[in-house]
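Hey all, sorry for the wall of text incoming. These are the two entities for the joint prediction.
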Amino acid sequence: MVKAKKDLIKSPKDVSTSGLPLDLLLDMYRRMVTIRKFENTIYDVYSRGIMPGLAHLYTGMEAIAVGVCITLRKQDNITSTHRGHGHLLAKGGDPNLMFAELLGKESGYNRGKGGSMHIVDLSLGILGANGVVGGGLGIGTGAGLSAKMLGEDRISVAFFGDGALNEGLFYESANMASLWKLPVIYVMENNHYGEYTPSSRSTAGTGPARAEAMNIPSVSVDGNDVLTVYQAAVWATERARAGQGPSFVECKSYRWRGHHMGDQGDTYGYRSQEEVEEWMEKCPIQRFSKHLVNNDLVNPEQLKAIDDEVQILIDDSVEFAKQAPYPDPSEVFEDVYA
Amino acid sequence: MSMHERIGTIREAINEALHEEMRRDDRVFIMGEDIGVAGGVFKVTAGLLDEFGPERVRDTPITEAGIVGLAVGAAMTGMRPIVEIMFSDFTTLASDQIVNQAAKLRYMTAGQTSIPLVIRAAMGAGRRAAAQHSQSLHAWFAHIPGLKVVMPSNPADAKGLLKSAIRDDNPVLYFEDKMMYNEKGPIPEGDYTVPLGEARIHREGTDATLICTSSMLYPAFDAADQLAEEGIEVEVIDPRSITPLDEETLVNSAIKTGHVLIIDEGYQNYGVTAEIAARVQEKAFDYLDAPVRRLGAADVPIPFAPSLEDLTIPSADQIVEIVHEMRA
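and here's what came out:
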């Protein structure tokens, strides 16, 4: 008998969610609401023509980022995607600095040089959103490699979408992570569409089966249930922290908005309004708040108070961003080289 | 030869630099295909595994995008990776990671991160390896802001430039001409570095300037000897890195001689020769006695047949002929 391995969680289902501390539950709720309100505010601001460029909204998928990131510590790394606001906020990103970045302001995380798809905060372990589909998978895996080589107590989570599952870099990175037992978690956010093409027309087989083929233990969970995502994340993070190597977690969900802000309503005719509404019925935030209230864990007023606090926070972040200066023209030539 | 140098090959010089830098800094590690147990297909990394072990001398699968991708992530989180891409032709497989990730992360994040990464790759024709193992693609990377591109031509520079590249906080592509690994010369011992962005004047002359990169130094030397017999003294300059480029040294030589030929083994179309020619003409136009000339690889996929392949590589005879034409 190998005693040391006795404590490892065999399956996400073995992770109990019944006795979770109220603080943790409210933190989950707060982070999900923060993402929702942040994204809704972008929708409004963008629609009024104040925001340049592209913005890919995470609305409807909040439970994934929060269920995973709530299990991470500050020094743990994440890599994110073009649809990255949710991951950044869930990992502790500052809404003021994010909004300022979205408006191309000097006070933004990247002094206006990155925008929505490139926000980085190394102090929070955030190695960046990424404008290339699947582009962050190598970086996220490399962060696991450095953690192992340096003997540092941190793990790495690489978020990616169902579209990125068909990029070669996933296999190249995950193969090495499995061979070398790197502390990496691959979180596949299956929102069922790669841009405007359904995964049924782009993906043969499934993500978990592909990961299993590389000896990476895998699960597929309901990505609209934050507690289910949390269970999978605890299972995967404990494996990573115990030196058991990478895990793969598929979270099934749906983006309520278009692929990006330029695609709202029925621009591309790739999905029906009925389908969108069906998924909106499965709102991860409503589902979680019902769970909390129905189990007498909180009363609705407590949640309302959080909603109001977050609204002020987000409103303030927009104001902060609007007031912030644009970068000095001289900055265009700064930081090309170290 | 001084007390502090020995005669050795470029292969030995690179190997020595790798050993010294890995001894100096624990964060430096190397990964690539067959670089550990096998010592590299060109035997450049021989001995590293024995001294530093499999964690820091990491044999990888054949997976170029993954190798560079992991290296970028490791570089962002405290390591200083060196990656070997066996043939520079295969950098194409890693181009997203090099061009879209490594090159841009510092700028996109306004300096929050840096990518101290060296990518070593074997370049050049002459090995009878045909079109997918013979290219010189360094100009592609020199086109991208955020990357540095280094091209040693001799053992001393090979050592000194590699040590500087490893200590640089930016992604550096370090191209080794596969036909030059056995080229011999002095190798300074100990902590010898050559700064990136400083050209080296190998031979002084007053009648024409030959600016040549990497292995093109050798046909340039041959041509210089032939021309000297006719009484034509040419200056031979190796930029050593094309990003950053020591424009000043090149322009000053152009002003001095009035005749400039640039020789590089990359394709001539839109290549290094074109860039340097443009810069020299912009800065030295009034001093030039003839249009700046250039000589790159023939603009064809590199053919296999030795008789054909040789026709694609710049030669001493071509250099002599062009110098004659310029001075006519």
